[in-house]
Structure formats: structure tokens, C-alpha cells
Amino acid sequence: MEVLTVESLDQEGRGIARRDGKTIFIEGALPGERVTCSPYRKKPAYEVATLVKVVKPASQRVTPRCRYFGLCGGCSMQHLDYRAQVAVKQRVLEDSLWHIGRVRPEQILPAIYGPAWGYRHRARLAVRHVPKKGGALVGFHEKRSSYVADMDSCEVLPERYSRMLRPLRDLVDTFSIRSRLPQIEIAAGDDADVLVLRVLEPPTVPDLEHLRDFAGRHGVRIYLQPGGPDTASPLSAEDAANLYYELPEFDLRMHFGPTDFTQVNHAVNRVLVRRALALLDPQPGERIADMFCGIGNFTLAIARRGARAVGVEESAALLKCAAANAEANGLSGAATFVEMDLYRPMGAWPDALGHFDCMLLDPPRDGAVELVKALPDESPRRIVYVSCNPGTLARDAAVLTQARGYRLSAAGVVNMFPHTSHIESIAVFDRGEA
Question: How many CA atoms lie within 13 A of 33 on its CB side?
Fold first, then answer.
């Protein structure tokens, strides 16, 4: 079997090698290694392969901590040293900015780190009843498959949730509706834990009794979700959870619902908010926008620094939560919220938004291209862009630098999802010359 030399990693954490001008993507291989592999997908210009043997290992190769690594599709980089993962992500970010946006940052920001294990405070677990496997499976999907991984623990979940996987399997086996329960969502706060069960049929009375017993034994609150996210409700009014996370540096307590979007990594989120606010440097009297504001994660920190904060979001439910958080934290007079679809083509800048001195963008994976295209001539002097997709960040950076007169002053990675190929980042755009 031919031995290949791995040159680099792609955005999915696969090793890249070349043979006769053809690119070979090798799952599990690392830069600098000499390996053999077995292709499972062949195209004219490339192949995708699985690792067979490491002939010469990289110095940064480590033993994966999770015994399900390679089977479970949740992590793709546990075989690479934690610090090296961040360096790889930084390289992918810079490559995306240049190859897609034709722009390079003037400064590389220090990477934001956090806990390497037990960090994931939000997760969506698949559920499937498989008699051939002995009953219910609860966990992440297998790699490259719709099957649910047969797992009893997870190293990136908080330990209390990892220990719950086997009991959850046993619980599902007791249900009359076990074939009508496709997922269980985890939502962890600083002082409460919630499981949201997606139910396609109403549970029976015995099912509910099993749920209450499980909740009592494991110290969790159970919610049932028969439809969309807004339909999630506790088993009873007494079971409603007080979910929140704190941003101590800003004296903020952020309440959220079990299906509301929040950052999965609370420790990294605290550092991210601190970094974003240091870059924005809001001053009293300034008017600063937080676009795609969600529950107010950045909005209220901006307001706490004395600026007039305006959160903009298309979800009425999230805006209601953001307004409630502003009131609970004594910031109703400093933060206002606007409901607006920021994905639709705008043409001109909406009059309802007015002028902003600075702006923070924190869009979903699709980015904020319609928003940055519509920025007025009197645009904010600085934009801090928090991204979860280097490709759409690079696309939007091209618009900002080539069409809107901004410089990419700085950019760096945020390791929100250790051991995965997911790349979170933060970038700064300034008007005019340096």
C-alpha cells in the first residue's frame, strides 16, 4: 500500500495529501505524518479516505481521551494536541479570509481558550430504539452516518450529563412511545439542568411517572417538546427551570429558555464577551448596535459600559427574553430592542435603525451579507464581527473592505468547540486609514 505524506488539514480536520496531482483527504491523519489510507469516495479531482496506518507519526499526535472517538461523529480532532488544534483553526481562518475574501488582517488576535473537556452546556442527542443493539441508543450520530453511536459516556459533555447517558437509554426503554422520541436536548445553566424530550406522541401516564422518577433521581428538570422549539414546556408548572448563566465581569445574569440559542461553552463565552467589549470600547453617550442579538449576550454588556445599546433580532421570542434580561439587570433604560429580519435584501439602510457609532455582528452560519451591503455612507467607525463560519466571514469581509471602505484591523480564533473542526472567530473592521 502506497505511503503518502500529509501536508496540512482541511476545514473538517482531515489530512491533505497529494498523489499524481490528485488531492487525497485522509480522516485521522495529521500534518507531517507519513500514512497509508483506504479511499471510500473517489472523484476525478480528489479522493476521501480513512487512515489505515501511521508510518511516521506527528509530534503533535496524542491518544484520544474518548473511547468512542472515531465511531462517534461529534469530535474529529481528539488525536491532535489541544494547543495545536487552535493553530490549525487559525490557519484555516487566515486561508479563508485570503482565498475567499482576498483580505488579510493587519493584526492576529491572541486565540481565546477555555476548558478542553466537559465544556458543552448545550447539545442535541439523537435517540433511536434498536432491538438488535439491546434497546435504546442515546448519543451523537456515528461518523458519516445517520445511525446513533452506541455510547455510554461523552468527554465533551459536563460529567453529570455524561454519567446520564446510560440511565437515559434505560429510561427510553421503559417508554410506550420509545419509537416516537427522536431526540433529547441538553440545556445546562449555572444552577439548573434541563432535558428537553422531542415527543411525536403524548407520553402515557406510566411514561410520565418514569420521567418524574428519573428527574428526581438525577436532579434535572424535564421538558416535553411536541412541535417546534416554542412548544417546549415543563412536565408541570412546578417543574419549570430557572436557567441562567452569569457574566461576572459585567455584573450580569442572563436568563434563557431551554430551547433558546445560547453559546454552548459558558467559560469561553465569558472571555469572548470581555474581548468583544474591549475591542468595541463603548463610551457613555455612544449608540452601539448588537446585530443578531439573541437574548442580549453582548447587548447588555455594552449597556453596562454606559453606551446606549440597541439589540436587533428577527426572533420575537428571543427579543422578549432579551428585554426581560435587560429589566432583570436594571438596564431597561440603557438597552432597547428592535425586531427585524436581517437576512432579507435591504437595498437602503432602514430608517428605523438610524446611526450607530459602533456595531457588533454575531450572525448564524449564513453570515450577514445583506446587512453589510446595506450599511449607509455614514457607517459605524468600527465593526466587531463574531463569526461561526470562516467562509461567510471571509465573504462579508470582502464586501466591507472592497465596497464599504473598511480595513480588516484584526482577527483571531475562538476555540468554542475543542476537539471539533468548528471554527469560531472574532474580527475587527475599522473605517479609513490605519
Answer: 26
